């Protein structure tokens, strides 16, 4: 009996389609736009494009890049983008409350035992005594905007440490990095591929881990327009299929390391086309490797973490108290769990 690996099987299916032997999804060739950030955590989409998993699902995908979560949510609501992966934010929840968008799955997660998001201090603040999150009282914490995931993480850390600190909105990740390097803000939290690069260059100091405060944090979610979720169910399922296949390859290579060093290097080459593409591969690779975090298999969604985030936004007066999970989450597409 001849056995085929996954790639060979997909190749045979493609050949069957070419000869007219049934592949209605491929024949659709639907053009869709997928929003992304140039973060290692968006590798599921990158792999699905590069290895043809979206195409195999019948989707002609264009990646569109953003510099923060909020503009991506607005682009989904306006119809400029069809699907995206981003953190839960006050803006996203408010757009869902208006009937514009729906979360349909989970992506990046904090997981015990896997290096996750770091809490950083500016060199100036570190030298002045900010050597752990316990000293955040009275400090300035950088965020993109009020109601962002940075705001949520910083607030949860401050609450746990009983520290009163202020939040400085700077709109874009690049602006936050500049402010942290120059000492205009004292602290920030960010995914490890950025944190490790900054700390490795001596520009900032690592003073803690988000997983110590939010051990099972559902960092990012997969979302789409409410119209796509309700009226384009086949297309939405096809998107999740392609995305999940990309995630499976990424996880096998970067987290479980089933392909050994060769598998890691092959995946780094792919990701480098999108992350730190302006740097030589040898300089980008260490940050990409250190930035590898778990992305949920089959887009499973940690509904307990999403509920905690919603409750925090409501407690801060950033979204309406009448909003429920059903308002902005469609649980019909993927498995949900509580952790």
UniProtKB/TrEMBL annotation:
Give the range the annotation lists for the signal sequence: 1-27
Say which domain of life the source belongs to. Answer: Bacteria
Q: Kindly give the Pfam families that the UniProt entry links to this protein.
A: NMT1
Q: Where is the SsuA/THI5-like domain?
A: 40-250
**Localization, UniProt:** Periplasm
In which family does this protein belong, per the annotation? Belongs to the bacterial solute-binding protein SsuA/TauA family.
The name this protein carries in UniProt is ABC transporter substrate-binding protein
What species was this sequence derived from? Roseibium algae
UniProt lineage:
Bacteria, Pseudomonadati, Pseudomonadota, Alphaproteobacteria, Hyphomicrobiales
């Amino acid at each position: 009996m001849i056995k085929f690996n996954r790639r060979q099987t997909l190749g045979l299916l493609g050949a069957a389609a070419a000869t007219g032997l049934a592949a209605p999804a491929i024949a659709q060739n639907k053009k869709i736009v997928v929003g992304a950030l140039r973060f290692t955590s968006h590798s599921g989409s990158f792999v699905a494009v590069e290895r043809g998993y979206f195409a195999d699902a019948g989707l002609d995908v264009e990646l569109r890049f953003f510099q923060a979560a909020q503009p991506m949510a607005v682009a989904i609501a306006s119809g400029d983008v069809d699907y995206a992966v981003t953190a839960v934010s006050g803006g996203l929840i408010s757009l869902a409350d208006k009937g514009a968008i729906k979360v349909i799955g989970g992506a990046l997660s904090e997981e015990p035992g896997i290096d996750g998001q770091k809490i950083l201090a500016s060199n100036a603040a570190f030298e002045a005594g900010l050597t752990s999150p316990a000293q955040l009282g009275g400090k300035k914490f950088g965020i993109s905007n009020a109601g962002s995931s940075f705001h949520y993480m910083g607030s949860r850390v401050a609450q746990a440490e009983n520290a009163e600190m202020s939040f400085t909105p700077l709109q874009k990740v690049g602006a936050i990095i500049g402010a942290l390097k120059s000492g205009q803000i004292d602290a920030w939290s960010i995914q490890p591929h950025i944190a490790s690069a900054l700390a490795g260059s001596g520009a900032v100091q690592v003073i803690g881990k988000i997983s110590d405060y939010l051990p099972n944090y559902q960092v990012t979610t997969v979302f789409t327009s409410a119209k796509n979720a309700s009226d384009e169910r086949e297309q939405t399922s096809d998107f999740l299929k392609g995305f999940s296949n990309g995630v499976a390859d990424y996880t096998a290579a970067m987290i479980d390391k089933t392909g050994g060093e060769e598998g890691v290097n092959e995946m780094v080459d792919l990701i480098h086309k999108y992350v730190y593409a302006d740097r030589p591969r040898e300089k980008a690779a260490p940050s990409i490797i250190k930035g590898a975090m778990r992305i949920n298999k089959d887009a499973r969604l940690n509904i307990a973490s999403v509920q905690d985030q919603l409750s925090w936004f409501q407690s801060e007066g950033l979204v309406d108290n009448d909003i429920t999970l059903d308002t902005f989450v469609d649980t019909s597409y993927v498995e949900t769990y509580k952790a």
